[in-house]
Design a protein that fits this description.
- A 6-stranded mixed β-sheet has the order 2-1-6-5-4-3.
- It has helices spanning 20-35, 64-78, 144-150; strands spanning 46-53, 60-62, 79-92, 95-106, 119-131, 134-142.
- The protein has one domain (17-152): Nuclear Transport Factor 2, Chain: A (Roll).
- 22% of the residues lie in helices and 34% in strands.
- The chain is globular and about 45 Å long.
- By secondary structure, the chain is of the alpha+beta class.
Amino acid sequence: MKGARPEQAVLSRDTDMSKTDETRAVIENMVDGLNDHTIDGIGAFFHDSFRWMGNQGCGTKTGLAEFQDNWQRPFQAAFSDKVCVDEARLFMGEWAAAFGRQEATHSGKFMGIDPTGKRVEIRYMDFWKVEDGRISDNWVMVDFPHVLAQLGVDVFNGEGWEAFDRGDKTAPRPA
């Protein structure tokens, strides 16, 4: 890259490293709350004005009520018997990150697809900012194309870049 480089890691640069244990406790307890399917009591872990910023298809929720009404309730209506499994967690001061999967049953309408009863894997990545003992910001990536593929919908119409993967012997090879 020629010229000036963009400033990096602005949000986490000045994190208070003494907050790492507090951040860990908030995240671990919040994930337990999600696994207990807590909606009304989830405010114990989130500021009322927190921001939940998801990828395309997930949207952005501003405030606890929007998160509860426009993410948690619809998600739990579409997917029952849900369990969250963080495969890795990282903690650094007021910051935490995790990736993993939710395992759930498709028991309600999802993205226009009627319930199939299929057990699905919902992969995700989360980054959280914890301030004053509660989450103030949450950046989220949920792999909805993977969920939809499990339900028989290819959002890429066969044009996904899996065709470039060496391990996929069934995909046509690009010329």
